[in-house]
């Protein structure tokens, strides 16, 4: 990827999208401040958090750390919220941005420096992810996309999960170009977002990763996985209550959009996948009643 600045002086901006997670956000920013990479700034975008205490807590973080703080008037989803931060970062001359969830911790102070040095070696990379670990030790990167067969015959995937035969759609764990990386923490280039007109805001949440992966390829770039450094995804929000049927419906709406616009399936596969996923949607819809 062409850039007149080398890895040591390229400006990197971390974009943290906050939603009722100021406590997590404070930890995330604290780890970012410990990074040895010199040209690193932070933007916090609050995605219209309904908790009135969030604004005060985030302003305290801003005062204590110097992070830039933006308040969205409405919550239009993950991609739309992050785009606010990405556009501000580009406006402030960032070369690369880190889209990072509030519950992700970059405990290695050399994390950003290492990734930026590696990016120099992989010129086609527009999106870069690293090793990511959950508290259980489970890996979240690198990822692969489901095959048309897996898409259409999703009940078989559920059976494999029950039998412990499911691979979690993980790819080979080695540094190199890959199909897809996790959306909880990834680097994204200014060159790519300007060419692609930023992240696709059509989906509110879910399926952002496969949409981004296909968009990267469609725009002539690649995604890169770096094995040697680790981000810790504490996944605090998994403890919060939520309606699983409602979440599944949102996921399936997003998935149907992905199938139609981005999947690259042939016409027959698209018809079969749409039929199968619509059936799945109807089954979850019944659980809502």
From TrEMBL:
Instruction: Give the Glycosyltransferase 2-like domain ranges.
Output: 14-164
UniProt entry tagged with the keyword Lyase: no
Q: Which Pfam families match?
A: Glycos_transf_2
- EC class, as a word, reads transferase
Tell me where the transmembrane regions lie. none
Any one GO MF annotation of this record: glycosyltransferase activity
Per the record, the pathway is:
Cell wall biogenesis; cell wall polysaccharide biosynthesis
Q: What is its EC number?
A: 2.4.-.-
User: Could you say which residues form the signal peptide?
Assistant: none
**UniProt keyword annotations, A-Z:** Glycosyltransferase, Transferase
Q: Which family does it belong to?
A: Belongs to the glycosyltransferase 2 family.
Q: What is this protein called?
A: Family 2 glycosyl transferase
Annotated source species:
Faecalicoccus pleomorphus
Phylogenetic classification of the source organism: Bacteria, Bacillati, Bacillota, Erysipelotrichia, Erysipelotrichales
């Amino acid at each position: 990827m062409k850039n007149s600045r080398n890895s040591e002086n390229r400006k990197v901006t971390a974009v943290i999208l906050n939603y009722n997670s100021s406590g997590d956000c404070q930890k995330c920013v604290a780890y970012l401040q410990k990074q040895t990479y010199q040209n690193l700034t932070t933007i916090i975008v609050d995605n219209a958090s309904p908790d009135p205490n969030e604004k005060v807590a985030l302003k305290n973080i801003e005062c204590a750390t110097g992070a830039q703080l933006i308040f969205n008037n409405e919550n239009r989803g993950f991609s739309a919220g992050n785009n606010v931060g990405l556009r501000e970062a580009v406006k402030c001359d960032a070369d690369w941005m880190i889209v990072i969830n509030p519950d992700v911790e970059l405990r290695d102070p050399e994390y950003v420096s290492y990734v930026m040095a590696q990016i120099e070696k992989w010129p086609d990379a527009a999106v870069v992810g690293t090793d990511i670990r959950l508290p259980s030790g489970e890996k979240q990167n690198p990822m692969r996309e489901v095959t048309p067969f897996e898409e259409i015959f999703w009940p078989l995937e559920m059976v494999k999960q029950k039998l412990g035969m499911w691979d979690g759609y993980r790819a080979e764990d080695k540094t190199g170009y890959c199909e897809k990386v996790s959306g909880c923490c990834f680097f994204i280039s200014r060159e790519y977002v300007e060419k692609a007109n930023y992240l696709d805001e059509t989906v509110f949440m879910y399926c952002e990763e496969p949409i981004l992966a296909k968009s990267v390829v469609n725009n002539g770039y690649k995604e890169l996985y770096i094995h040697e450094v680790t981000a810790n995804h504490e996944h605090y929000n998994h403890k919060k209550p939520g309606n699983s049927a409602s979440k599944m419906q949102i996921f399936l709406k997003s998935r149907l959009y992905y199938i139609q616009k981005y999947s690259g399936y042939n016409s027959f596969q698209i018809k079969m996948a749409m039929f199968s996923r619509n059936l799945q949607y109807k089954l979850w819809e019944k659980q809502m009643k």
